[in-house]
Automatic annotation (TrEMBL):
Protein family according to the UniProt entry: Belongs to the hexokinase family.
Keyword Nucleotide-binding: yes
Coiled-coil region: none
Protein name: Phosphotransferase
Organism: Penicillium olsonii
PROSITE patterns cross-referenced by the UniProt entry: HEXOKINASE_1, HEXOKINASE_2
Length: 490
């Protein structure tokens, strides 16, 4: 794993000096709109901490701070064989994971199955039948023997769900293009288990998890310094371990105050009221035209789904407000199509190694049918840098808020998601922001070190199933729905 130092990417030769005077003004306007300075970062984090605390109360707030009923970290000595089912937006993945005696070690066998497009708007029965088909195929392929003992399953269901128990989850709303009638507002575990039972498959759901919680637990399995799990991808989210005594909405359960419980923050909804986030007019357009205006404010400024759209809107604004200034006499009709560009478009511009930005020239031509001048490409690169840097600096605010709330001076953060793994300089820019927010000395770079995460939706799901059964064995009933059912897995 590679830590984050705050080292910034080197600037290329021949940048702003060669930009015509008439383009310098718009570039400066973009710099003013997208730059988030140290004092603003600190203001955001202060509000963020209050919102995290509010989400843990009975009243709640924009950030739901979902209790996951994952009660503590693995000790590295978990053992046994578990199935993990990862239902993503495009693929379904089934893993068999054997946790071995050696601390932090595991063996994994896995298969991927493409989710048919028609399933996204099909019936609930078709969905559960398809999942059961995949599980059955996996079992039949990897277990020739008969009379297999019942296998515990960790089900990674990365859609917003309310959990009263670790093996229970009521779908709040579909995301990722799914719109299947008869599932929202219902527990997703019983219909799956009913079909598994009907088919005689030796599988019992031991835990329903979110990929962020899985990332936290899987990363902690191999790294004792891991305290936070994050997703920086199509969406943004974090999970961390809280003491039950600091969760007022659990007070009625009279659980031990020092008992740990993982909290799935779902903090993409931070600042839906638009109190502190430095919104540009492009952010306001994205929110206004989104399927759910007024929701997921933080996500819409930082997540991979929106970075390309922010870039597109800024260029269209420049074309309309300064006719003939850029792309003169070019057909820009393609550029006017919402969500045509994704974060990879910006990433490719930032990674262009050539002084004349010839890769960017090819990119605009192939994707947008626009022939660019070198000055226009320099402007596009600077705009990409500004949007990418803002996303990284704002993303660091969520991590800093959890560290501030928990008085964490030093820790590792496990991070997954396409923006973290693929967007150039995202890690370094985030580290620089953390240094500014948390007032580290100039020579300190990594007190809070963000590292590439372990497989949260696979290994994390298996580990959470293992931790749940360990609790059942110890008689800890908190967040366990049916103790007798769980005992059949021991």
């Amino acid at each position: 794993m590679v830590g984050l130092g705050p080292k910034q990417p080197p600037s290329r030769k021949g940048s702003m000096h060669e930009v015509p005077q008439d383009l310098l003004g718009p570039i400066q306007d973009f710099e003013k709109a997208f730059t988030v300075d140290k004092s603003k970062l600190k203001e955001i984090v202060n509000h963020f901490v209050k919102e995290l605390e509010k989400g843990l109360t009975v009243e709640g707030g924009n950030i739901p701070m979902n209790v996951t009923w994952v009660m503590g970290f693995p000790d590295g000595h978990e053992e046994g064989t578990y199935l993990a089912l990862d239902m993503g937006g495009t693929n379904l993945r089934v893993c068999e994971i054997t946790l071995t005696k050696e601390k932090g070690a595991f063996d994994i066998t896995q298969s991927k199955y493409k989710m048919p497009d028609e399933l996204r708007t099909g019936t609930a029965e078709e969905l559960w039948e398809y999942i059961a088909d995949c599980l059955q195929q996996f079992i039949e392929t990897h277990h020739q023997e008969k009379n297999i003992a019942k296998i515990p399953l960790g089900f990674t269901f990365s859609y917003p769900a309310t959990q009263e128990y670790v093996d229970h989850g009521i779908l709040q709303r579909w995301t990722k293009g799914f719109d299947i009638d008869g599932v929202e507002g219902k527990d997703v575990v019983p219909p799956l288990e009913e079909i598994l039972k009907k088919r005689g498959l030796p599988i019992k759901v031991a835990a329903l998890i979110n990929d962020t919680t899985g990332t936290l637990i899987a990363s902690a399995y191999t790294d004792d310094a891991m305290k936070i799990g994050c997703i920086f991808g199509t969406g943004v989210n974090a999970a961390y371990m809280e003491n039950v005594g600091s969760v007022p909405k659990l007070a009625h359960m009279n659980l031990p105050a020092d008992m740990p419980v993982a909290i799935n923050c779902e903090y993409g909804a931070f600042d839906n009221e638009h109190i502190v986030l430095p919104l540009t007019k492009y952010d306001e357009i994205i929110d206004r035209d989104s399927p759910r205006p007024g929701q997921q404010a933080f996500e819409k400024m930082t997540a991979g789904l929106y970075l390309g759209e922010i870039f597109r809107l800024a260029l269209v604004d420049l074309i309309d407000s300064h006719p003939g200034l850029i792309f003169k006499n070019q057909d820009v009709s393609k550029l006017r199509k919402p969500y045509l560009l994704d974060a990879s478009f910006l990433a490719n511009i930032e990674e262009d190694p050539f002084e004349n930005l010839s890769n960017t020239l090819d990119l605009f031509k192939s994707e947008l049918n626009i022939q660019t001048t070198e000055a226009e490409r320099v402007l596009a690169r600077r705009l990409s840098e500004l949007i990418g840097t803002r996303a990284a600096r704002l993303s660091a605010c969520g991590v800093a808020a959890i560290c501030t709330k928990k008085n964490i001076d030093s820790c590792h953060v496990g991070a997954d998601g396409s923006v973290f793994t693929k967007y150039p300089h995202f890690k370094a820019r985030g580290a620089k922001a953390l240094q500014e927010i948390l007032d580290w000395p100039a020579n300190v770079t990594d007190r809070v070190d963000i590292l590439a995460a372990e497989d949260g939706s696979g290994v994390g799901a298996a580990l959470i199933a293992a931790l749940t059964l360990k609790r059942v064995k110890a008689g800890n009933l908190a967040g366990i729905r049916n103790m007798d059912d769980m005992k059949t897995l021991l």
